[in-house]
Amino acid sequence: MSNAISIKGLGKSYSIAHRNKQSAKYQKFSDILVSNAKTMLGLNPRAEKDTKETFWALDDISFDVMKGERVGIIGRNGAGKSTMLKILSRITAPTRGSIEITGRVSSLLEVGTGFHAELTGRENIFLNGSVLGMSRPEIHRKFDEIVEFSEVEKFLDTPVKHYSSGMYMRLAFSVAAHLEPDILIVDEVLAVGDAAFQKKCLAKMKDFGGDGRTVLFVSHNMGAITEFCSRAVLLDHGNVAADGLPSEVIPLYAGVSGVGESNGVHIFASSADSLCHIARVSLLNTEGEPASVFELFDSVAVQIDYEVSMPLSELQMTVTVSKDGIELFHAFDNDDIAEILPTRPGKHRVTYQMPRRIFKEGVYSLRITAGIPTELLDDIDQGVIFEVVNHSSSILKKSYRSDRTGLIASPGQWLKQDNI
Known about the structure:
The protein contains nine helices and 20 strands. The chain is α+β, with helices and mostly antiparallel strands. A hairpin with a 7-residue loop joins strand 11 and strand 12 (about 275-285). Mean pLDDT is about 80; it is low at about 255-260.
């Protein structure tokens, strides 16, 4: 199989200016006149000069992407993911190194890129299609499919400046996807879409891979990376920290994000000024033991250890469960009891127990937050994942089967009833 993308020694640097304290602060016009007069008379003390620093957003990146691969690019904010995609999309030039790309590339890096706010959705389909390299006859041929996929037909003749971010996203992704490129590059823009549209986008990208095309996908959602990608590349401080199967690379993502993980136990570094810090998250099976892999009929408990640094009037904890990039549900600690979280200074523990028999086979990701009404105090949104497997049960005619409709199994119960 031949390469779709070949990256050799890729580097991108930026020059960062640092102003000295005196020149950095606000000065009135009279201050500037006095300072200049003193300089002419030799009365000014020697001031520190402004300095410049070279920052390498990418440093000696090398890897190949084969045709038909679906590659997830992961890493913490500032790792260099978006910079690399912009270079691959020819938006910015590398400082050093080389890139070889075989085939037509379509990129979706920012919502509405290539759109003109004053033009209608219809006009922007033609404009954006042209920007992405589509000929006018090709756009005409694909027009109905683009509109149907985007679900904005009702607003097609409305200027896009009146669109919501979700409508922008649907239209932009639809144009990019129907270009039928050899290589599709998608940044974390799918986050603005609703759950149903996210699912449709992921299905479309899977179709791309099935047709032998190549997809590069940047996301912080480890469930989506695991489900969608055949390979993951982890970036850290502009370098490739790991490259391999998602199941092998994703646990390392926790390590470069300041997180320690071992068999379902995740430990998070503390912030000095945090009012409430989530220090540890443990995933527990039916026996109450830490685990990252659960059998189909296991219960899953999320045990949260947190630290409060000063008295809080109230505190709320949430757990969000996602699969395939779709948020399945949010659980709030006060769903059943008005107030259960201790808010006094010290170390505390709370557990969210999920019932048996709701999860189908697959990989799930968790987001845990702690906050007060006016402020989010801590947010764990990466690295906490678990897998559900079936090694023992016959589920031939059951709703638990992964190919049944619905992302989770029925949490309800069927009851027998006598004839009436």
